[in-house]
Structure formats: C-alpha cells, structure tokens
Amino acid sequence: MAPLDTTAIQEERKVYYLQKILNSTVQQGPHGCRVWQNPVGGNGYPRMRITLVAGGGSSQYSVHQVVLACSTGTVLDRPFFEVSHLCHNKLCVEVTHLTYEPKVVNVQRRNCVAEGHCFGHQGQDSPDCLL
C-alpha cells in the first residue's frame, strides 16, 4: 500500500473526508469511542477510498489512518510504525484514541488489554492505553 501522505490534499477535501467519517459513526462506551457503523474489511478494520492528489486515482486505506493523517497532518510512511488504538477498539475512529508509534509498542498494548490494565510503555513517547 502507498504511504498515506495527506499534505497534498486541499483542506476542504480533508474536511470532507473527516465529515464523511463522522457521519458514519456513533459515540459509544465509557471513553467516548467513535464507532464505525459501515462495513469493514476482512481484517475487521473499517476501510475507505480516498484520492490523495486532485485528478489522481483513489486508494483504499483504513479509516483510523485517514482520521489521524487528515486531523494531525502526520505522514504515515515510516517503516515499522503503525496507528495504534489506545482504546483497543478496531472500529473506533476517535482521533484522541489514535497514536502513531512503533509496531512493537502497538503489540505491547495487547498485553495491557489481556491483563485489564496498562503497563505503560517505558522508554517510549507513547500514551497509556484507555482501559
């Protein structure tokens, strides 16, 4: 998959994508997850097609990646990095529940959810899990 770099997208288009995503969610749960209500991909994550460059073709991305990239301007192109769900909900697209961090930290988060509390992620600039 091509890197997700939204810096070339006009602000109006970013707002359009974010509004389209917002309209496809409901707020749920104790942490205020924005839960996707449309079909999901085979891996259980919401997917959508976006056009990165005017007049260019569209590509399919995970919705949580689109939200983080459009909201923060983060370029999602670093190898061994992933967008993590702090709330551990694959269907959540709430930007405050998303962080871009090394894959190893994302994997560590599975231990947190399995044990029911966050162990912290020492040595990392990563926020605690929402449990």
Index terms:
131 residues, alpha+beta, Homing Intron 3 (I-Ppo) Encoded Endonuclease, Chain A, two-stranded antiparallel sheet, 3 helices
Note down, in words, how this protein is organized:
By secondary structure, the protein is an alpha+beta fold. Helices cover 27% and strands 21% of the residues. It has three helices and six strands, in the order αββββαββα. The strands form three sheets. Strands 1-2 form a two-stranded antiparallel ribbon. A two-stranded antiparallel sheet has the order 3-4.
The computed structural class is: alpha+beta
Number of domains: 1
Mean pLDDT, all residues = 90
Biggest sheet overview: 2 strands, antiparallel
Strand order of the largest sheet: 1-2
Radius of gyration over all CA atoms, rounded: 15 Å
Show unreliable segments. none
State the CATH architecture: Alpha-Beta Complex
Distance between the first and last residues' Cα: 31 Å
Helix count from the secondary structure assignment: 3
Q: Write down the secondary-structure element order.
A: HEEEEHEEH
Give the C-level CATH assignment: Alpha Beta
Strand content: 15-25%
> What is the CATH T-level topology?
Homing Intron 3 (I-Ppo) Encoded Endonuclease, Chain A
DSSP E strands, number: 6
Shape: globular
Helix fraction bin:
25-40%
